[in-house]
Amino acid sequence: MANLKAIRKRIQGVRGTLQLTRAMKLVAAAKLRRAQENAVSLRPYAANLIDVIGNLAAKLGEEEHPLLARRPEKRALLLCYTSDRGLCGAFNLNVGRAAEEFFRQHPGEGAVTAAVIGKKGNEYLSRRSYPVSHYYKDMFADISFDRISRIGNELTAEFLAGDHDSLYVLYNWFRSAGAQRITLKRVLPLELPPTGDGLVAQDQVEHIFEPSKRDILDTLMPMYVNISLYQALLESVASEMGARMTAMDNATRNAGELIAKLTLLYNKARQDTITRDLMDIVGGAEALR
Amino acid sequence: MHLTIVTPRKEVLSRDVDSVTLPGALGEMTLLPGHASLMSVLDVGVARWVAGGENHELALNRGFAEVLKDNVRVLVETCEGCGEIDVDRARKALARAQGRLAGASRDPSIDVARAEYAMKRALARLKVAGTTEHE
What we know:
The complex is a heterodimer.
Chain A: H1 4-57, E1 76-81, H2 91-105, E2 112-117, H3 119-127, E3 132-136, H4 145-161, E4 166-176, E5 179-188, E6 208-210, H5 213-288
Parallel strand pairs in A: 1-2, 1-4, 2-3
Antiparallel strand pairs in A: 4-5
Helix pairs in contact in A: 1-5, 2-3, 4-5
Chain B: E1 2-6, E2 11-16, E3 19-24, E4 27-31, E5 38-42, E6 45-51, E7 54-60, E8 63-68, E9 71-76, E10 79-80, H1 87-103, H2 112-133
Parallel strand pairs in B: 1-9
Antiparallel strand pairs in B: 1-2, 3-4, 3-6, 5-8, 6-7, 7-10, 8-9
Helix pairs in contact in B: 1-2
């Protein structure tokens, strides 16, 4: 049969793909482990910070700090966390879709502007001509708190200057390697946790503040904003690796199945040729008698 | 009295202590059991605590402390014990910062606050590294 060669070529091609996806899966798995560690090791800090702010919040009004002040939400800034690279399943698509949904819920010219981390999100939104005011590139080679703090400080300064009235983060929350959940959270103005760890309720005595309550708020509030952004980044990176690992695992399995099918086809075709050749020989011998 | 020190990277410490000394923004303060509730901004400096008769030290970067019902919580950007400090690097950083501060009156482009911050950080590191070196 003429297509024997074609099938063989096809098998070789699929085998190449399989090797590639398997390698990508292994790389993603290794990176996932690190990303997960990072995300998990931030949690005690974040939890403590939220407790402290909660304890403070029990004695605090909205008017006490500009980062707490709610004003009519005319312009919202939506910070979307995506990845620079593809081949990670629906990871980026889910963020893009959720961002579009957010735009739909806030109609009106300039009601929402997007800020994007990651090339894929920028491509997705720009191609559909949504306004993207900030685009942060090359975030993933060196994921550091310093870097995200600079972004946080920039966005906070814009909030204070009135460029936008609120700041939201949109990211994939890491549940497990196989499951990511799209999460939307308001960061500014700050939503204070109801109360900290409950210790403050029994504590009637006024705190001592050093140097002053205002100084403490000035330290804590921006820290809280930056930690929120950082945590979203770490969750997003872990999710990306999880999504890629799962996608590449599926691709590897599909390639394996395809190879098995093609091999069967190939063997059948080969058997057909042999049978036909035999028939020819037998027929030829018969004719000679 | 329970002391917890956390950074964005990890929970550095969580244990019972007899007393703790922190670099508060208004100056060094020593906390003993039964201290009043307190919230304080922390400067760059050295945190010291006594537990079971032993002294311990850590070099702290800027941060924040809360005292509530004999629970001391320290939140800092980074902190280092004596084993983690690169003494050479700290010495160089100190010399560089001092040089920049000395030149600040002539060169207005020098960021004095940043140089002071770098100097304090280097000093804290050297202090923590130094005490164990000469013991």
